[in-house]
UniProtKB/TrEMBL annotation:
Record organism: Caballeronia fortuita
Pfam families associated with the record: HTH_1 (PF00126), LysR_substrate (PF03466)
GO biological process: DNA-templated transcription
Entry keyword Transcription: yes
InterPro entries per record: LysR-type_TF_proteobact-type, LysR_HTH_N, LysR_subst-bd, WH-like_DNA-bd_sf, WH_DNA-bd_sf
Family recorded in the similarity comment: Belongs to the LysR transcriptional regulatory family.
GO molecular function, one term: sequence-specific DNA binding
Keyword Signal annotated: no
Taxonomic classification: Bacteria, Pseudomonadati, Pseudomonadota, Betaproteobacteria, Burkholderiales
Name of the protein this chain belongs to: DNA-binding transcriptional activator GcvA
UniProt entry keywords in alphabetical sequence: DNA-binding, Transcription, Transcription regulation
Domain HTH lysR-type: residue ranges: 6-63
Amino acid sequence: MSRRLPSMNALRAFEAAARHLNFSRAAEELFVTQGAISRQIKLLEESFGVPLFRRLTRTIELTEHGREYLPVVRDAFDRIEQATLRLVNRDRHRILNVNVLPTFAMRWLIPRLPHFAIEHPDIEVRLITSIRPVNFWREDIDVAIRVGVIPDSDPGADVDPAMRPRISLQMAEDWSNVRAYRLLPDVLVPVCSPELMKGVAQVHEARELLQLPLLHMATRVHAWPDWFRASGVEYDIAAHNHAYGHFFMVLDAALAGRGVALVPRMLAAPDIQAGRLVVPLELEHESAGAYHILCREHQADSATVRAFRDWLFAQRDEQQTLKETASLSEADL
């Protein structure tokens, strides 16, 4: 008996339009005209005998029938994609496309990647760097690493939001079908070059940092004011007139002796350990966000994604062990 199924093109048009709630964006994604999307959905509605969308003046919304049908179609597409990937990648060299924040890639991930290649010689990691919110529907990405806050997440009853520097970066454009794993905390600490501290009295409290030039981040405008507030000091952000676009830029400025940068400790760790940067005041505050591993929900347990995720967790745990060992050694001195 032949199956009674709609056309694949019509289903793709429906899924994209339902996800975007916009026929024009669905058309852009599928490289067709808006009229083609409208016709495909109209064919579906006529075939089913029920409306899938409610056409309003400037927008569209799913009807009850559309809301009921969407998860079924999406699940079917996910299963087809998974099965296809398994067939394509069987007995083949596997490629993993990873979209990462630039400074995280340069300072944390790339120095460790050779170890992943040794452990998984059959997986080729292709890195792409970007600070834009990731969109798994539009981009050919398997895994992304972003820093921020998961929408509607609970910070925990023991967390005082006022003591956490805000982070306004958006991690994903569309959170549907996205799974997030917390990788690392975003712990902010002041750093500068040793030369900058020459001739400067030892800093004992946050207020004393105001005697030094402070380096700012365009993407973290709240960092210094919130860090000072959490330290019990009021700071007027209007006092600065220049900001850097990336952490690697502000770190380079700090290395050049331009001022004090407020950065995630893990990104400055190599330079601190090498003596190129110093921490003028051992006072750190964890921001409201964290570094997360993002992937498609239906690919989260694929062999390639799971191998990379588990390796990242192992690297994190090793870093924490080394940090604890170093702290114990310092305590014994």
